[in-house]
Amino acid sequence: MSSFAIRAGMVPVTQRVRAYFAPVNRTTEAPALFDPGKYGMFSLDSPPAPWIDLGWIDNFQRISLTPNEPLRAGVRGTAAAQFRGILDARIEFDFREWGKLQMALGGGSEHMNVLASDPNATAQPSGGTPLAAAAVLSGSSATQINLGVGVVNGFSLGDLVAVDADYQQQTGYVGAGISAAYVNSPSDVNQDANYIRRVTFNIGRVAQLTTTALVLAQPLLGGTPAPGMSVQKVIAFVDREGGAFFQEWSALFVLEEQSGGRICFHYPRLSPTSTVHPTTTSLPPTVQREKQIEISKPISSTALHAAFIALPHTDENDGQIAICYRSYFPAAMAGVY
User: Fold this and answer.
1) Most Cβ neighbours (<10 Å): which of 27, 77, 136, 296?
2) How many helices and strands in the chain, by DSSP H and E?
3) Which of 43, 45, 64 lies closest to 56, judged by CA?
4) Coil vs helix vs strand at 154
5) How far apart (Å, rounded) are the C-alpha atoms in residues 110 and 179?
6) pLDDT tens readout for residues 248-259
């Protein structure tokens, strides 16, 4: 092989960026970790658990605002050493696909499921009093929700459904599998028995109906329903500008390789933010929440803009604080340097 061919393999040529997210355990603040040695060059269409594929993204920008500060000494204050200042990194991009997770990450606060409403309920912007929930029976799985004869008739092929526990005045993080909201006091949620299903990420699409069960198109993110859970029909998703809760997720961004190897950016902990660093004059505040991408006038695609601040993670190998890991899988037979 010629030296030119070896060096050519060292030039990464990429086409698009793929985004994968996984929930952080909010109780322990334990992130989901991407181990490049364990997962390697995984198939982009089949990410390893617990990573969730959120599709292709556009306008991916990594913004590093961590300064290197000189330690000065001597009569003339010459730089004798360096140290890192406050760790600060942001990322911004546009989700090209809309879904519950994409909206939750773009909005940043509690993300609501609009439950099918009682026709006589008082109108509410995030959904009023819903129709009664149906109890999930034993023997259910992450893809099959057993309800019993007759109860299934309340659902139709293609329905979205939320599967989670009744709210029973508990406080703290709520939501099966993924922390969807934080309850300070039962009075904050009006002691609504349906509140957890209003915010849960445990959502599925009905792909098949049997005489006794709902068969879902994809497994529930929370896994097999626990005893005592119930199911309700979801009409739409809604997020709000405002709210006290902050989403927190682990993220992995993969630059799709065309040649020259794969590049991955792993952020153990990301939390949505609305602006870049306020002291950075070259980067204006993020004010655009959606972006119109022209297809052919007057038709355009609407993208969800998302902005995040990176939170710290203590590296298990040496105790150093890090906020992002950049890994590179070289192309076959490429030079090392």
Assistant:
1) 136
2) 4, 21
3) 45
4) helix
5) 10
6) 999 999 998 888
